[in-house]
Amino acid sequence: MAGLMLEALPEAGIAPPLHPDTPPRRRPVAVSGAEPEILRDVLRPEVNLAIWHRDLATALTAGLRPLADAAPFTAVAEDDPERAVEALAAKLPATAPLDLLLDICRLARTFAAIVDTGGAVRIRLEAITGPACHRWHADAVGLRLLCTYRGAGTEWLPIAGGARAARGIDPKALPCERSRVATGAAAILKGEGFRGNAGFGCIHRSPPAGPGERARLLLCLDEPGRIPLE
């Protein structure tokens, strides 16, 4: 597959426990590449993070200022990609650039095909000015796509243990070096709710926001029906 890169692949498939009383777990594998097909690799049992590296069009990034100025806000819609994006646009507090809406629709179609949702998807677009999910955690969902259009991208740790391990992490003494999904990249994270993945969810967080930092614009795609609409 073009541009394929393994971000974390141990010599053995077992990781040491984060705590003495925690049994060893499979070490998570992250894959990345320059083509959208890389996202489908998240379905492989050993993979819990797949990243599609891409550059955002200038027309898209240049048109994000009105949405950033309207922060904070959260807009949610759930339907097939085209109808969901149309409903999402109507809920936004400022006009979204057409290039952004087309990109969200493209990602929603890709995600729906990978997750096999029957064509529907849950879309959340939010402008974040505060700390958001700044604690390390693993999501309870099956698969989740994140894309940061503006601001710093999602941070993640290549360690085993899922949600339980995440709760024991001291943010001032990380067990390994953290990594970050680049702005504009699309990443699918495997959560604790994916079949056979309990205790193996991707450990991640939103980057801590410092005083005066500009608003982040974050897209989140989920399977439909699992999370109530706000």
Structure description:
This protein is of the alpha+beta class and 230 residues long. The chain has one domain: Jelly Rolls (Sandwich). It contains five helices and 13 strands. It has helices spanning 58-62, 65-69, 81-91, 98-115, 162-167, and strands at residues 5-6, 14-15, 25-26, 29-33, 47-52, 73-79, 121-128, 143-150, 155-157, 179-180, 186-190, 203-205, 216-222. α3 (81-91) crosses α4. The relative contact order is 0.21.
Number of strands: 13
* CATH class assignment: Mainly Beta
Order of helices and strands: EEEEEHHEHHEEEHEEEE
Radius of gyration from the alpha-carbon trace, in angstroms: 17 Å
Sheet with most strands: 8 strands, mixed
CATH architecture: Sandwich
Q: Name the strands of the widest sheet in spatial order.
A: 1-4-5-11-8-13-7-6
Question: Can you count the helices?
Answer: 5
Counted up, domains total 1
**Helix/strand class:** alpha+beta
User: Any idea what the shape is?
Assistant: globular
How far apart the termini lie comes to 39 Å
Averaged pLDDT = 87
Low-confidence stretches: 1-24
